[in-house]
Structure formats: structure tokens, C-alpha cells
Amino acid sequence: MILRDLRIVATHEDACAEVARCVAQTLIHGDRPVLALPTGQTPLPMYEALVFLAREGVVRLSHATVFNLDEYLDLPRTSPHTYRAYMETVLWSRLPHQPLAARIPCSDPDDPTAECRNYEQAIRSAGGIDLAILGIGANGHIGFNEPGTPWHAATHVTQLSETTRRRNADPFGGVHQTPRRAITMGIRTLMHARRIVLLVSGADKAEILASALQGEPTLEIPASVLQLHPALTVVVDRPAGRGLSPDGPCRPEESGAVLIPHPKDPPAEDRPG
User: What is the 3-state secondary structure (H, E, C) of the chain?
Assistant: First the structure.
């Protein structure tokens, strides 16, 4: 396949600014847009850009419904390490207007299976996801869909891999205190999004990104399924994109980065037909 929307930019901050514009376009041109948003270190500058745009009056989230991709399990709801606390800190508490609805799975539900079922139903009731912003894990996971996750999986409880737990251990004071389980949107849920933007930064992600985009789609690299999505945008900084071969099966339609319009410009091909 040819990846028709690959945007290689200079820095991590540039990549996040590009993705923030994608979100802004959806907010500006969407009637009641539904977003799926990530957590972690990589998207922090994206959230900074969105807060700036909101405070400048360029975008509003008051008509948007936002779902988080995932949440740790077996943490108290008051824990500062939940993704609910993360979103409150980096986005919700800093916006001049709150979103129409902001949904995150509960970190200590009485019945995790029911929580997953209810979360999936809430996404369907909202009309499905218009725009999903994803990252890629060191082992190729998207959301917390670890290697081996079936592509038909809906929102579910997942056992976090040792690789993932080690990468996420610092806030918890070590891998032994890092949660072993999480609730995540499933691959089927994500692939039903009308548009997906994959944000990747750093040389440490170059090898897994190249495998995901230029190898054969496989359960062992969950992100490789994104090759099959009809409206995929990939935004990477140069260190992350250095492993992408211009002669590979998944490459830009034309060489060089694809420029994205200012949020106030007409959406053109920004949304799939």
C-alpha cells in the first residue's frame, strides 16, 4: 500500500503542532465531533497547543465529546497516576470551556467487564469516533492493545506486557508498583474511527514504526493494522521517521512532508468522504 498522508517534520514539538491542527480542524468543522485522545509524554506539546488555541478563541471543545483511549486498572480513583488525573492536569483544568462530555474508563470499577461493555456502548451512542489520535508503544501497541490482541477486539481488559510496564514505571517508583492491568479501546473500536492520526516521536520508535508501516500487518505488531485504515495520517519527527524507506511498500505518495492547512482554512480532504 501507499501511505498517502505521511508528514515528516523536524522536531517533536513540530509533530505535536501538526497533530493539534488536525484536532483543531475537526473541532472547527465538526458539528458535534467525537474525539479519542491519548496520554503519556509524547502528546504533551499537542495538549499545550490545544490549550493555546482554546484560550485564543480559535477552537472550542464545548460541542465535542472526548473519550480517552485507555485507563489503568487497580488504582484508586483519587490516585494522581490515573489517566483521569493526567487529563485533568494537562487539559481539562486549563480550558476556558469544558467539552460537552469527557469520558474515561473507571480505574477501580466493581465489574471491569461491565465497565468495558458500557464504555463501548457510550462510544456507539455518541455516534462513533470522528478522530482518534494514537501513539505507538515500543512493542507496537496502540492504546493498550498489546501484541497478540485480536483485531476484532472491542473495549476490553488487557494484561500489560513487561515492556509496557517498564516503560511506564517512573511515575510509580518502579515496575513492581506499576499496574498490571488496564482497560483499553480495542483494535476494532479504533479502526472504526472515521479518521486516525498516528503521532510518533523519537529515534527509539524508528524501528518499530518502520515495521508497523512497511511490514506485513500482523497481530504481533498491533499498530501494523493501521495500514488497513482508509483515512490514516502519520505525523512523525525526523528521528522517528529515519527508518522509513522511500522505496518501502508504505511510503509518501510524493517525497517530503505534506503541509497541513491552518485550522481556519477549509477542510478540503481533511475528513474522509
Answer: CCCCCEEEECCHHHHHHHHHHHHHHHHHHCCCCEEEECCCCCCHHHHHHHHHHHHCCCCCCCCCEEEECEEECCCCCCCCCCHHHHHHHHCHHHCCCCCCEEECCCCCCCCHHHHHHHHHHHHHHCCCCCEEEECCCCCCCECCECCCCCCCCCCEEEECCHHHHHHCCHHHCCHHHCCCEEEECCHHHHHCCCEEEEEECCHHHHHHHHHHHHCCCECCEHHHHHHHCCCEEEEEEHHHHCCCCCCCCCCCCCCCCCCCCCCCCCCCCCCCC
